[in-house]
Design goal:
With about 160 residues, the chain is an all-alpha fold. It has seven helices and no strands.
């Protein structure tokens, strides 16, 4: 089975190389749409967040559901196979523009599903800790010598970023 999946990956990579700029254009359009959807939902739900960023959590949950459902539903050997371009448009473009948490969750799920539970847990711990640390480090470095106290200036920036 491992040989089949390696062969599938090689075929997919070969098709993507032959596709030229098509996949890049597809991802670009999907990202724009995903970002627009995220911003629209954030605007519609401003004020709903109490002590937790509920709109962001909801967006992340929705993005994770979409990448899990669409990715499985449109596999080449699945019920409704989709072209590489369509899969890239939705999974990398829309979901990536909507939330990068969906990609992180899919990768973690694949590790766990493949029996690599330790690597899945390590992925979660490293991603959360290092991403949180990166935001803190970026904030610290940007505010040195200045008076900035926050990364986002408005609730909209904080929730949409």
């Amino acid at each position: 089975m491992a040989d089949d999946s390696c062969h599938d990956v090689e075929l997919r990579e070969e098709r993507n190389q032959e596709a030229g700029v098509g996949p890049y254009f597809s991802v670009m359009l999907g990202s724009a749409l995903g970002g627009l959807l995220r911003y629209t939902l954030i605007r519609l739900t401003l004020g709903w967040d109490a002590k937790l960023p509920l709109s962001t959590i909801g967006i992340n949950i929705l993005g994770c559901f979409v990448i899990g459902f669409f990715g499985t539903f449109t596999l080449q050997g699945g019920r409704h196979p989709a072209s590489d371009t369509v899969r890239l448009f939705v999974m990398v473009g829309i979901c990536g523009g909507f939330t990068t948490f969906s990609s992180f969750s899919l990768e973690t799920f694949d590790l766990a599903r493949g029996g690599a539970w330790f690597r899945a847990l390590l992925n979660v711990l490293l991603s959360v800790a290092l991403c949180f640390g990166s935001v803190a480090l970026g904030h610290y470095l940007a505010q040195r010598g200045g008076t900035a106290q926050a990364v986002a200036e408005t609730q909209e920036e904080e929730l949409a970023g």
